[in-house]
Amino acid sequence: MSTLTITTIQSNLQWEDKTANLQQFEEKIRGLQQRTEVVILPEMFSTGFSMNVEKLAEKMDGPAVSWMKKLSAERKIIITGSLIIEEEGNYYNRLIWMLPNGQYGYYDKRHLFAYGDEDQHYTQGNKRLIASVKGWKINLQVCYDLRFPVWARQKPAASSLADLVASEMEARDLPMPPPEEAGSSITDTAPEYDVLVYVANWPERRNHAWKTLLQARAIENQCYVVGVNRVGTDGMGHYYSGDTMVVDAMGAPLYTRAHDEDVFTITLQKDSLEEVRNKLPFLKDADRFIIA
Questions:
Q1: Burial letters for 119-158: b for 16+ Cβ neighbours within 10 Å, e otherwise?
Q2: pTM of the model as a whole
Q3: Which of 11, 21, 44, 57 is 20 to 30 A from residue 232's alpha carbon, by CA?
Q4: 60-113 pLDDT per residue, tens
Q5: CA angle 220-292-277, nearest 5°?
Q6: pLDDT at position 86
Q7: Active site residue 223
Q8: Hey, is 17 helix, strand or coil?
């Protein structure tokens, strides 16, 4: 079975200082001694969790995205993390999934942190991004998304989904969509993804929720979960303890680190994941649902 090697970088972000942050991450990435395939950086890794969007936002051809593209190509690795992006007058907390060939995917944070006024400055995303690497499927999410399990939930089998769409349309007296939209053309009933990634700026005073929910997402979705957080104190006085974690499909932490900067590389095993899913086939009993 295949393996996937990932590297998490837990770092103290310099407040609203793109040059300093990109420099420190470049040094850490260039200093990697172990072979890796995916490098995961925290949320808003070039600025910290700032609402100063007019000053800090960049376009998709801006300096931080260009930095990701250049370093990804040079090191032949995938680099992911979120940035403040401006597009057509809207601002997004956008996770970039940068490939070594210069192609990329992106995910705009769905759940904006209203408690910190993020919803007053950023535009909400409405589509999930599930990337594919060497046969692994990776669901990419951002920080506050962690508190909303439906957004991360493995979708039900295709046949169940098609039946659910049909019953909902009938109940609302609406015409049936084409088969491909209803899901009946999908024959793969395997889990939707294998790894769930959260990049974050999650404060220390709520770290119990962070650690508990990362383990819960792994257990309920029978997948690996990787949560990459920052450390240090930001420009608003909030302290971050990191607590970056890698969790297996049974909810057991394979790695965690608090308070200190750290670069950690681990190889995930697909056969271990499949063993859990085969011995404990709980996903087949999951509730049917549609994300509107």
A1: eebbbebeebbebebeebbbbbbbbbbbeeeeebbbbbbb
A2: 0.90
A3: 57
A4: 999 999 999 999 999 999 999 999 999 999 999 999 999 999 999 999 999 999
A5: 20
A6: 98
A7: no
A8: coil
What's 192's DSSP letter?
A: S
- For residue 158, the model assigns a pLDDT of 52
CA diameter of the chain = 60
Rounded Cα–Cα distance for residues 232 and 260 (Å) = 8
**Coil vs helix vs strand at 125:** coil
Tens of pLDDT, residues 111-125: 999 999 999 999 999
Which one is catalytic: 37, 69, 143, 204?
Answer: 143
Judge whether 143 counts as a catalytic residue: yes
Residue 207 identity: N
The DSSP string of 131-184 is: EEETTEEEEEEEGGGGG-HHHHPPPPPHHHHHHHHHHHHHHTT-PPPPHHHHTT
Residue type, 205: R
Mean pLDDT of the chain: 92
- The residue from 43, 69, 118, 223 that is catalytic is 43
